[in-house]
Design goal:
This protein is an alpha+beta fold. It is built from six helices and five strands.
């Protein structure tokens, strides 16, 4: 096989992986217009990549505060550093329904978000990637553990008062 064919085949399986990975992947330009929207995002939002491409993140998701997100993204574009949002700070960026409603006790998906610079061959950052991780199981487990701890503390206090 030729090198060109090898490159095409490699590109094809990389794109397939991008679409099927169980993590949301969104690429935004400096105007916060969506350039890439993978299968995870399509599945959880109900929006096709063709529906969102070149559209403003803030027009499609008005609950995302533009000033806040722009400020959060600024060091990613300008300093070429990553930025993180955790479910403990903010339960979600995209209010997707919990896709395990029968076994899940939460109505929405808790998310961790990583913003990463996509550095071009010239060293500039014109795009950033956003990776969205479903943290619902972790969040539910932590909330249940905290509830048990509160219940045990209250029981201990009642026992001490009864003595």
């Amino acid at each position: 096989m030729s090198q060109q064919l090898d490159d095409i085949l490699e590109f094809h399986w990389m794109m397939d992986m991008l679409q099927t990975v169980d993590v949301g992947i969104v690429v935004l330009n400096r105007q916060f217009k969506i350039q890439v929207w993978n299968g995870f995002m399509e599945s959880h939002s109900g929006m096709l990549p063709s529906d969102v491409r070149d559209k403003s993140l803030f027009d499609l998701f008005p609950t995302i505060k533009e000033d806040w997100f722009t400020q959060k993204s600024k060091p990613v574009f300008d300093l070429k550093t990553r930025a993180f949002m955790t479910w403990e700070q903010r339960p979600y960026l995209f209010k997707f329904p919990n896709y395990r409603p029968i076994t899940g006790s939460e109505s929405f998906m808790y998310q961790n978000i990583t913003l990463s610079p996509l550095i071009s061959a010239t060293g500039n950052v014109e795009y950033i990637s956003m990776m969205i991780y479903d943290m619902t199981d972790v969040a539910v487990g932590k909330k249940q553990l905290e509830a048990i701890q509160v219940h045990m503390t209250e029981a201990q206090e009642r026992n001490q008062l009864a003595r």
